[in-house]
Amino acid sequence: MFSFGDMMAEALGLILAWDRELSAIVVLSLRVTLSAVALACLIGLPLGALIGAFRFPGRGAASVALNALMGLPPVVVGLFVYLMLSASGPLGVLQLLYTPTAMIIAQTILVTPIIAALTKQVVEDLHGEYAEQFASFGVSARARVVALLWDARYSLLTVALAGFGRAVAEVGAVLIVGGNINHVTRVMTTTIALETSKGNLQLALALGVILLGLAVVVNAGVMALRASAVRAAYA
Amino acid sequence: MRDTVMESAQDCAAPILTARDLGFAASGQVLLQGVDLEIARGRRTLVMGANGAGKSLLLRLLHGLLPPSSGAVLWQGARPGRTAQAMVFQRPVMLRRSVLANLRFALRVQGLGWRARAARAQEALEMAHLTDKARQPARLLSGGEQQRLAVARALVCDPEILFLDEPTSSLDPASTQMIEDLVNAAHVRGVTVVMVTHDRGQARRMGDEVIFLHAGRVAETGPRDQVLDAPRSDAAKAWMAGRLYTRTDF
Ligand SMILES: Nc1ncnc2c1ncn2[C@@H]1O[C@H](COP(=O)(O)OP(=O)(O)OP(=O)(O)O)[C@@H](O)[C@H]1O
Ligand SMILES: [Mg+2]
User: Fold this and answer.
1) Structural domains of chain B ordered from first start
2) Does the CB atom of residue B53 touch ligand 1 within 6 A?
3) Domain residue ranges of chain A, discontinuous segments joined by +
4) Cα B61–B65–B67 angle (5° rounding)?
5) Which of A138, A233, A235 minimises the CB distance to B81?
6) Distance between CA B21 and CA B71 in Å, rounded?
7) What does the H/E/C string look like for chain B?
8) Which value does ipTM take for this structure?
9) pLDDT of residue B4 exceeding 70
10) pLDDT digits (tens, 9 = 90+) for A53-81
């Protein structure tokens, strides 16, 4: 029976040795998650800004829906994307199941409501402050959305960060649509799950440490950016 | 075009806008009613009255930010688009950008090209004595500097009419002077000025016409000296007397 200390030492040894397999897993994780977050921002930022800045019929329902979708269980998203992409599904011809693209699609669906809902809140607050001035300037609807997103940029960094955190830590959706295939769709979280069940705790622990480290580094970076923005009264 | 505006300002000025039986109600309360008035083109009209009389509300209605519950605001000829008017709010709204970017934003909304924007923004900075603060975040400026920027930003697009809601109410004399200079320079260029003020001294310095509001109605309108020195309405009399009374306390 290993002690936790011994296991930790072995895990750190694995990290320091940094072989190609480990690096492939980490790189794929980042590729999938960053792509998904980027896509989710592309959809969620303007969507959230529209709902936050304009009154229209169905606005209340839209924000309730977004808030509900924030809590989507990853396995349900995984199942849904699986059904869409499986050979007999409507998008089966694309043959995307068990590819990184399928994982990106699943995580995008998972993260977009989070980005959109949080963006809506941020933009709504800022719009409360700006609305009369914008009306006085005669700012067009389109320019209004762009200006609100730009002026909220530092708060929205935190929003993107929340999306990143959700995606990078998620295991259910990528496992179902990616299949955890070695060298193809194996990412940090699915590897941790697999290796733990196989009893290969050192590798699982090593990946866990890397995952935590990544989260700390990304959060610290965003917080430093925000701090400088607060000093400049831009946040 | 500005020349003809100035000429007509020297004659008995034609109104640039007219309010007809203007009223505004919110949540069952009548806040403004039966307002009939004319804003003379090229002149400086002051809106005075006690706190809560409806001065800010009137400005919002005239500027088109609120739809009136009754009556209408009529512009001479076609209703000018937003380019034709600008407003400085009681509390200035600064975008989360630099001083220069605040000015450029207003210009970009008007569809000006990059080169024209840079030139006009530079001019406005100099007029507002903010050239050395151009790159600073606007929200870190002092209250007086923010108010100066707000006036400069409203004027940078060269509006026909400028609304100002108590632009100097929390400023010291030097800052007040700078704001008044900015507004007067615009007036000389032919801009019609509509300004809310509580300050009798400012009314003497800046007013051509005075509109006195009381409890959501126009109590009195007329040339500045008449309204300030020989008010006819009870409301204006009481207000002016109240001011004089506090002075005799010194
Ligand atoms: N959108 C609104 N909905 C409801 N009530 C309003 C609204 N806007 C203004 N009021 C009310 O109308 C009245 C007049 O407000 P207004 O801001 O015009 O006063 P004011 O003359 O500008 O006063 P002050 O000198 O304090 O600035 C106030 O009692 C205010 O509470
Ligand atoms: Mg007011």
Assistant:
1) 2-240 (3.40.50.300)
2) yes
3) 20-231
4) 60
5) A138
6) 5
7) CHHHHHHHHHCCCCEEEEEEEEEEEECCEEEEEEEEEEEECCCEEEEEECCCCCHHHHHHHHHCCCCCCEEEEEECCCCCCHHHEEEECCCCCCCCCEHHHHHHHHHHHCCCCHHHHHHHHHHHHHHCCCHHHCCCEHHHCCHHHHHHHHHHHHHCCCCCEEEEECCCCCCCHHHHHHHHHHHHHHHHCCCEEEEECCCHHHHHHHCCEEEEEECCEEEEEEEHHHHHHCCCCHHHHHHHHHHHHHHHCC
8) 0.87
9) no
10) 999 999 999 999 999 999 999 999 999 99
Segment (H or E) for A195: helix A188-198
With CA atoms as reference, report the closest residue to B211 among B5, B54, B9, B61: B54
Tens-digit pLDDT profile for residues A91-129: 999 999 999 999 999 999 999 999 999 999 999 999 999
Strands B217-223 and B209-214: antiparallel
Chain B residues near residue A232 by CB distance under 8 angstroms:
137, 140
Q: CA-CA distance, B138 to B95, in Å (whole number)?
A: 7
Statement: residue A165 has pLDDT above 80: yes
A10: contact with B, CB 8 A cutoff: no
- Environment class of B151 (CB within 10 Å of its CB; exposed 0-12, middle 13-18, buried 19+): buried
Residues A115 and A39: beta-carbon distance below 8 Å:
no
Residue A72: count of CB within 10 angstroms of its CB? 18
Q: pLDDT per residue over B172-230, tens digit each?
A: 999 999 999 999 999 999 999 999 999 999 999 999 999 999 999 999 999 999 999 99
Q: State yes or no: pLDDT of B80 exceeds 80.
A: no
Closest atom of ligand 1 relative to the B54 alpha carbon = 18
Within 8 A of A135 by CB-CB distance, chain B residues are 65
Q: How far apart are CA B148 and CA B50, in angstroms?
A: 25
CB atoms within 10 A of CB B146: 19
pLDDT score of B78: 53
Options 1.10.3720.10, 1.20.140.10, 1.20.1560.10, 3.40.1000.20; which CATH number does A20-231 get? 1.10.3720.10
Tokens of B69: 């519950």
pLDDT higher than 90, residue A52: yes
Tell me how close the Cα of B128 comes to any Cα of chain A, in angstroms: 19
B233 falls in which pLDDT band (50, 70, 90)? confident
- The reported pTM is 0.88
